[in-house]
Specification:
The chain has helices at residues 2-12, 14-21, 24-33, 35-41, 63-80, 86-108, 110-126, 146-152, 168-184, 200-205, 248-254, 257-279, 294-307, and strands at 138-141, 157-163, 189-195, 219-224, 227-232. With 308 residues, the chain is of the alpha/beta class. Helix 9 links the parallel strand 2 (157-163) and strand 3.
Length: 308
Amino acid sequence: MALLTTLFAFLYHLPLVYKWLLKPYYIASLFMSLAFLAIRKTPGVCEHLSTQREDGNSCDFDWREVEILMFLSAIVMMKNRRAITVEQHLGNIILFSKVANVILFFRLDIRLGLLYLTLCIVFLMTCKPPLYMGPEYIKYFSDKTIDEELEKDHRVTWIVEFFANWSPECQSFASVFADLSLKYNCEGLKFGKVDIGRYGEVSKKYKVSTSPLSKQLPSLVLFQGGKEIMRRPQVDKKGRAVSWTFTEENIIREFNLNELYQKSKKLGKSKGEKSEQLTVPAFSPVPEEEEPEAETISAMDTESKKDK
């Protein structure tokens, strides 16, 4: 079932997958993920590799290599059950493919294993997954502007994401939060983000830990009247986040976005009506010209005849 879910999700987002795969990060990751397969199957190279196959065919996987690949494939399927975006699916596949390559290369030849592990470390330090650059209605806060914006108008409800650019979970969630902002942003309901990896004081003030062990990234906080109403994920007494899946459906349900949106639209309408009343000038009525009476007209006619 998990395999079918992953397959359907991949096929549904196939047009977007092509765009992502054409980016340098994913192209390099794809080559690194297929490195052992390429070496094991390439004629002229595979003949010089060692093997534990009974038939001595060094250009095919032996039973231990198949076992390692099957085990890591099962882990990928388990991890992808909780993946909510295509980026997360691809990220899990790439990550565990590299882990499998490290194990297989070390088992084949320790020199190849060290070489591949060095390449992985260099790639991790120099290359980062591409950030989300799509459309969104999100205001980005700094340590100086977040308090000002939250206190600016108490009628406005804010949903603020506390994130860090280095967090893979935050990078995967970026497209989901952007889609929510496009659907629900209005005059009385706004979406914001603040990078607590950059602004440590904001992290301390709003009690969102940036430690990877706390698993509090990303954190969504609902503010009404400048005060925190709720947050997800919740934090237990030990400072660890309670497990919660950041899917669009969960956020809509937990934060009651449909009802919030309907209430917040009324604020926009009331503001619009007030602005119309202020901008429409009060013109004084133009006095109508009085028509001359019939007696006056006849008197003027008789006088003109006498003159003639």
